[in-house]
Specification:
9 helices; disordered N terminus; 266 residues; mainly alpha
Length: 266
């Protein structure tokens, strides 16, 4: 990522950085770039961030089942809160390194917007999937006793049906709109809180519990726990998420076509 002039490294997400005037003017134009940070650092950030995200999703799901075995609603609340909190921290941590995607749908949208090359986007997705796979193994190991053992356990949690598929389209559209609306403030904490709150809420207002992330959908197959998804169910979820990303791309082109970012008077 780069900034123009002599400004310090930016705090941003989805490959968005703030121009050199930002320190003096929060409404300065936003410039899209990640040319300064080496590719190996960006890919490492995507892998590590994706791994921690999966640990948060799977680990909190297992802990929720352990702590609240007879209350599914409370399990979902605990899972949602942990995931939202982890997302906020991870986005703030890695936004200025890789843009803190941790999600192939976000990466696809950045590619469609022209903010990444095809090669960059492909390597981002590889790093996300690989990091997530390490994360799911780590979560399974940490909760070895609770899950009955197994570094990899194939989920039997079926998540099928039209309502859940529609939910994934809606959840993905909403997430990408939140990111591209919040990123215009040019501040990592704004995007981090917005994304964390959106995902935490979407756990409850979508029937699919808002995966909204192909990397998460793939890696949740490898943990037969509360947060898992059966391999037979995952492809449809991923397809709906990609459809949601394409719809979001069209909406973003209409809603955020101006180059002038939102102002922050706080």
């Amino acid at each position: 990522m780069t900034t123009t002039g002599d400004s310090p490294p930016p705090s941003d997400v989805s490959a968005t950085t703030v121009s050199g005037e930002t320190a003096a003017n929060d409404s300065a134009p936003i410039e899209l770039s990640h040319s300064v940070v080496p590719m190996y650092a960006r890919l490492t950030a995507e892998a590590v961030g994706s791994g921690f995200l999966i640990i948060a999703v799977i680990g909190s799901g297992i802990m929720a089942e352990t702590l609240s075995p007879n209350d599914v609603g409370l399990q979902l609340l605990e899972n949602a809160a942990a995931t939202a909190g982890a997302l906020i921290g991870l986005i703030i941590m890695f936004a200025s390194v890789s843009g803190a995607h941790f999600n192939p749908a976000v990466t696809l949208l950045d590619r469609l917007m022209g903010d990444m090359t095809t090669s960059e986007a492909a390597w981002y997705v590889v790093a996300q999937l690989a990091g997530g796979f390490v994360g799911v193994m780590a979560a399974n190991i940490m909760f070895w006793d609770e899950t009955g053992g197994g570094v990899i356990t194939i989920s039997e949690n079926q998540r099928d049906g039209g309502p859940q598929y529609v939910s994934e389209i809606i959840a993905t559209i909403g997430l990408l709109l939140v990111i591209h609306g919040a990123v215009r403030y040019g501040k990592a904490y704004v995007v981090a809180v917005a994304v964390g709150v959106w995902i935490g809420g979407a756990y409850f207002f979508t029937s699919s519990t808002s995966f909204a992330n192909p990397m998460v959908s793939v890696n949740r197959m490898f943990s037969d726990t509360f947060a898992g998804i059966a391999p037979a169910s995952a492809p449809a979820f991923i397809a709906m998420q990609l459809i949601g990303a394409l719809v979001a791309f069209g909406l973003i082109r209409v809603l955020f076509s101006s180059d002038t970012p939102a102002s922050d008077d706080s």
